Amino acid sequence: MNCFSRYKTVLFAILTGWALSACTGNFDDINTDPNATSKASSALLATSVTGNLVKWDIWISVANDGMRSKIICDTEGAQAAQYNLLGRGTFEGYNLLITAEKMVDNATSPALADAYRGLALFTKAYKMYYTTMQMGDIPYSEALLGEKEGIIQPKYDPQKDVFRLILDDLDAANTYFANATVAFGGDVLFDGDPKKWQRVTNSFALKVLIALSKRADDTPDLNVKARFAEVAARPLLESNGDNLRYECRNQPGMYPPYYRVTNQSWMYLRMSSVMTDILKKHDDYRLFYYAEPSEYYEAQGISVSDTACYPGINPSWNNTDIETLTGERKTCRINARYLDDPDGEPIARVGFAQQEFILAEGALRGWLPGHTASQHYLKAIEAGLRFTADNTKDDPLFHHNRKITDSYITQQLGRASLQLSENPAAFEADLQKIIEQKFAASFIQYKYDPFYDNRRTGWPVYPIDPSTNQNELVDRMPIRWMYPMEEATQNTESYQEAIDRQFGGIDDHNVHIWLTR
Q1: pLDDT tens for residues 292-325?
Q2: What pLDDT score was predicted for residue 146?
Q3: Cβ neighbours around 76 below 10 Å, total
Q4: Separation CA 194–CA 201 (nearest Å)
Q5: Are 457 and 435 in contact (CB under 8 A)?
Q6: Whole-number Å distance between alpha carbons of 250 and 257
Q7: What is the mean pLDDT of the chain?
Q8: Is the pLDDT assigned to residue 387 strictly greater than 60?
């Protein structure tokens, strides 16, 4: 059910209740259990909200994210996600916002209300950010007024206004969390600690601001550059332990999405050359943690500790050729630790390493006075390496005798090929390094973010083959998902106004949204 269907359902229930009230008399009194609550507690609703923020939907959605971002490839068929067919987006995030609003409404004290309001505002900003990033203009200002004001066909706000509202809500969430004095119940991620949520909120605000890099100079009302510096001075994530993340566990319902026992299909996924080439370029030991060696090259006597044993697949290659290479065992699977370890590694949504890469890019762009890009960039690389090492069992089968140690990290941080020049004349080369290293730290992490970084910066380069590209314009990557089909029938006027305003009346994968122009 999309958000507008739900609004209609709620309104129908309200109207039905009014109609029946005249003939039911004291029916509600008779049928209400005096010993039971008639509404869900804020804590119970918070459990639903916090769990939903980090959950992965089904295993194929996680695999598709990786294929779309050119991190992994499939060997079973020409998957649409790998070959750049985006399809339609989703408005599923709106349903969670209704739950979050109820969570605030049901708070039992002002002290708790601050934290729950902060969580509701963060949830709205988070969900709407990814919705607008997919499609462009979306309902925001009227999105939750179905029950309260009867607006069941909300208008679509222009994307620039959506970003303004997202940033304003994140500012307000930061204030609410800062003012909260007690832990709130129902939080499955941070035990209700408002200060940890404040850090996540501000880190996410930096992500939203860096997404505006192409529009930073022509949107003085959004004040992107000064706002970036202001948010960077607030409490931020301090380590990987602060990440907003899904914690996998060895128990039913909490296994990793790629766990072999519950999902055999991940055995057919292979490493993309976009990822392996970046790792090999800098002798990055994460190659040996992310991938399994090729059985063919291992049989030729090449050591599993040699990068030559890890051939990546160009994700634009014809699937028949990929199947042939795989049959010859000349490709490499994702590492066995993903398939065989039921505890898995956490799946981050907002993370410390990503935050530091964003700060590095902001500093490179001159948005962070008093900071150098290198200080955040090297901190980000270290955080990415430690995340992988700390969440992998010390087993040669999982790191192929290329263990990430403290001494290796020190050596890697000093590697000449990784250093930034910090010379304005070399801006693009420095930006490439930052985004490529951010990409390297995003293996099966950060839903959609690598794809959006590529759309925004062009890095890392995604290979395109017109003979295999399933995008309508075969010489390029698509720009956006189309709107959900039900919007054309259930919110027709607002939907049509939005596509007329943005795209000349045609809902299309290859037209620019405001953000990308």
Answers
A1: 999 999 999 999 999 999 999 999 999 999 999 9
A2: 77
A3: 13
A4: 10
A5: yes
A6: 12
A7: 91
A8: yes
Give the confidence band of 352 by pLDDT, cuts at 50, 70, 90.
Answer: very high
Spatial distance between the Cα atoms of 373 and 360, rounded to a whole number of angstroms: 4
| Cβ proximity of 240 and 383 under 8 Å | yes
User: CB-based burial of residue 354 (10 Å sphere; 0-12 exposed, 13-18 middle, 19+ buried)?
Assistant: buried
Tell how far CA 327 is from the center of its chain. 33
Q: How many Cβ atoms sit within 10 Å of the Cβ of residue 230?
A: 14
C-alpha closest to that of 153 among 139, 165, 169, 137: 139
Report how far residue 155's alpha carbon sits from residue 199's, in angstroms, rounded to the nearest whole number.
Answer: 32
Radius of gyration of the chain (CA): 24
pLDDT at 252: 87
User: Strand ranges (DSSP E) for 45-150?
Assistant: 72-74
Query: Is 163 in contact with 212 (CB distance < 8 Å)?
Result: yes
As given in the structure block, the two tokens for residue 310 are 């890890």
Give the helix/strand (H/E) hosting 270: strand 269-271
Output the furthest CA–CA distance in the chain (Å, rounded).
85
Distances (CA, A) of 69 to 64, 240, 318: 8, 22, 17
Q: Quick one: 190 exposed, middle or buried, by C-beta within 10 A (0-12, 13-18, 19+)?
A: middle
Question: In sequence order, what are the beta bridge partners of 246?
Answer: 347
Element (H, E) at 44: helix 42-54
Do residues 400 and 288 make contact, with C-beta atoms less than 8 angstroms apart? yes
What is the rounded CA–CA span in Å between residue 141 and residue 182? 30
Q: Let me know: does 116 contact 184? Beta carbons within 8 Å.
A: yes
Structure tokens at 95: 């349903």
Interaxial angle between packed helices 159-179 and 110-135, expressed in degrees from 0 to 180 and rounded to the nearest 10 = 160
Q: Rounded distance, CA 61 to CA 258, Å?
A: 11
Measure the CA–CA gap between 258 and 475, rounded to whole angstroms: 32
Phi, psi of 171 (to 5 degrees): -60, -45
Nearest-angstrom CA–CA distance, 163 and 234: 20
Q: Which residues of 390-399 are buried (b: 16+ CB within 10 A; e: fewer)?
A: ebbeeeeebb
Residue 40: what pLDDT? 86
Secondary structure of 303-348 as H, E, C letters:
CCCCHHHCCCECCCCCHHHHHHHHHCCCCCEECHHHHHCCCCCCEE
Alpha carbons 191 and 187: distance in angstroms, whole number: 5
